[in-house]
Amino acid sequence: MDQISVSTLLASPLAHLDLAGLAGIVVWHLMPERRPNARLLVQIAFFAVMTAILVRSNLSPFIREGGRTEYDDTLLVISARLLWWVHLAWAIIGFVRIYLVLEGRPREARLLQDLVVGTVYLGVALSVLAFVFGIPIGTLVATSGLVAIILGLALQNTLSDVFSGIAMTLGRAFAIGDWIVLSDGTEGRVIESTWRATHLLTGSSNVVVLPNSFLAKLGLTNVSRPDESHLVSLAVRLAPTRMPAAIVEVMQLALLSADSIVKEPPPAVALTGLDATALQMELYFRVASPGKRTQARNEVFDLVYRHCKSAGLLLALPAEAVVATADLPTEETADPPQVSPLALIEAMPIFAALTHQEKRALAETTATREYRKGDVIVREGDTLSSLMILRAGVVVMHRGGEEVGRLAPGDFFGETGLLAGMREACTLETMTRVTAYEIDQIAFAPLLQNRPALAEDLALSLSARARDTQANALHGTRHDRGQRFFLGAIQAIFRSRSAG
């Protein structure tokens, strides 16, 4: 067999085919993945050019039986055929990735695409062995059974993960973004699901990687279906110093005043036990997502405490506590402390810098205000010249006709008008009967004149309060500018009053 010179081979059209194939690979990798249609057109264009060169050179991409030529073993011919088969595979895979779609079932579509792509690669690999290198694949397939057994034993765990991943994908137990809870207590949001493992982002911002075979053996609860809301229950024990119906009403008020729970369906209170030591109950409410459970629990516990103090209810001793029956509070013997204006002022952080005498003097100037259910205390845009401290009841805040928050016993409002002469950002309407303590400007004047440092502390505390309750819809630098403006206005008025 005469050897073909290198210069002759390089001058042949097959050299052009190799260059076209390599150029196609480079261009395909340089194009961004977010443009699959353009990448497919490039693949088809280069594949068509390579096919035309093969046809023009009267060269088949595969070795025909009994038709072997002297060119078949040259590097140029082998590389040309190999590149043609690679581009054929990529063109088919491009069609599969774009057009093999299951409407409304992206995970199943992706799984089916991966299976088809794997089949294409396997078929092309066998075709290359048979039609490019001339290896009899019949013998290879016949002897591959032993290899398959060895690989199966070596990759047993990996294959188990792969098939478990396929089963879970077809079963659609969860999707990316769902929050799931496993039977062993592990819970988190699904952020990635691969052939081998599923990745969960836990509430503590850690990523847990679970092999699919392990996940398939555990029972799981998908709390994101049918929606993201999640039911939370809290156990509460109160001393039986009032009728159960009255105590349940107080607990319902506590849930009604919570901002971090879902309003529909409404929360519920269920009595679970009653004896000489305690009235036991469960508070049921829903949160918008599992990640808000801790925030909601903290708020509800705080509101239960505040409403109990407001209504004169006592927390019960733990069930395991040892106490004489005669020492237990009853409806006749219970003497809970009354929530006086002084008690509220002493409990509020903004007045922490005052001395006891100053707090007492401030409490003596307070006036009691009563409101019926549905009364409007102040409308959006009006100015309140008094600080109002909520003694009992629930007040809802509206801005632009939409609810933006609720106030419970111990909350206050009116500080913007009292200290800075600014208008109220919300309409305040009572949801229940409300009792409030009012402190006017005259009562504050001596404190502002005698305690300039206190004025600065109050300015900081009240500006933060205004930021949370009145600028709920603002974000970013605009929110910061509003806070600085409010703080500056309060400080300016304080300085002018102290100077006077």
Largest sheet: 5 strands, antiparallel
Radius of gyration: 38 Å
The proportion of strand residues reads 15-25%
Number of strands: 16
Uncertain segments of ≥5 residues (pLDDT<50)? 471-487
Structural class of the helix and strand makeup? alpha+beta
Order of strands side by side in the largest beta sheet? 4-3-2-1-5
Q: N-to-C terminal Cα separation, in Å?
A: 115 Å
Shape: elongated
Number of helices: 16
What number is the mean pLDDT? 75
- Helix content class: 40-55%
Structure description:
The structure is a single chain. It is elongated, with a radius of gyration of 38 Å. The protein is of the alpha+beta class and 500 residues long. It contains 16 helices and 16 strands. The strands form four sheets. A five-stranded antiparallel sheet has the order 4-3-2-1-5. A four-stranded antiparallel sheet has the order 9-16-11-14. Helix 3 (36-56) runs antiparallel to helix 4 and helix 15 (452-470) runs antiparallel to helix 16 (476-499). Residues 471-487 have low confidence and may be disordered. A hairpin with a 4-residue loop joins strand 7 (268-274) and strand 8. The longest helix is centred in the N-terminal third of the chain and has 26 residues, at 106-131. It has helices at residues 6-10, 13-30, 36-56, 75-99, 106-131, 137-154, 156-171, 212-217, 244-256, 293-311, 341-347, 356-364, 415-420, 441-450, 452-470, 476-499; strands at residues 179-182, 187-193, 197-201, 207-211, 220-222, 230-238, 268-274, 279-287, 367-371, 376-378, 386-392, 395-399, 402-407, 412-413, 427-430, 434-440.
